[in-house]
Amino acid sequence: MKQRIYIADDEANIRFIISSFLKNEGYEVMDFENGDSLFDMFMKQPCDMVILDLMMQGTDGLSICMKLRERTNVPIIIVSARDSELDRITGITMGSDDYMVKPFSPVELVARVKALFRRVQMDQKSHQQEIYTYEDILINTAQRNVKIKDVPLVLTPTEFSLLTYLFQHSERAVSRAELLKNVWNFDFEADTRATDDIMKRLRKKLTLSDVLIESVWGFGFKLSKKETNENPK
Fold first, then answer.
1. Which CATH number covers residue 9?
2. Which CATH number is 145's domain given?
3. How many CB atoms are located within 10 Å of the residue 12 CB?
4. Which of 99, 110, 115, 116 could form a disulfide with 185 if both were Cys (CB 3.0 to 4.6 A apart)?
């Protein structure tokens, strides 16, 4: 069965270009001129990936992204003319798995789509019976769930893959380049800030945990236990 992708963009030529390239790669594609139509269709018939523009008539793409994320872990890629660091971080923080700035190369978009699908598929096929624990966090890769102190934690596919990889290598620091290659499946040079954006979102979700994701300056990240400041009276 073909993987189905929904696209929402108010520019017909952008929808046509993206759809054409994706269809040439064997994907089933449906495009919409606004996010509301995409969301309505998704609630009737879910797809395997969503590509969203931010600035559209009706509900903006960021709000659609948040509505989808409240209901599903479907992979989401945002494409937007907004190119500031704040826009990128906001998009990633609010639930998207990737963010591309217009104008972009359709070839690169296809590569990112494939990489995101590969990541989801690898998570489903590999480590099917493995359970990872670190302090108060438990990851069950077979059920694809995460718990903090036995309380379920909702993660996007990218967040789940990233946290699992850190747990698999909890004994050492992991570089940004390593994450891009093994989590994002990027074989080409990519913006390493993408790892930082996702990490900020993941850290926020781990606020109640005893686990800390430390930044290793100029290198990457490492798991550690939060220090407790106890002042005995």
1. 3.40.50.2300
2. 1.10.10.10
3. 10
4. 115
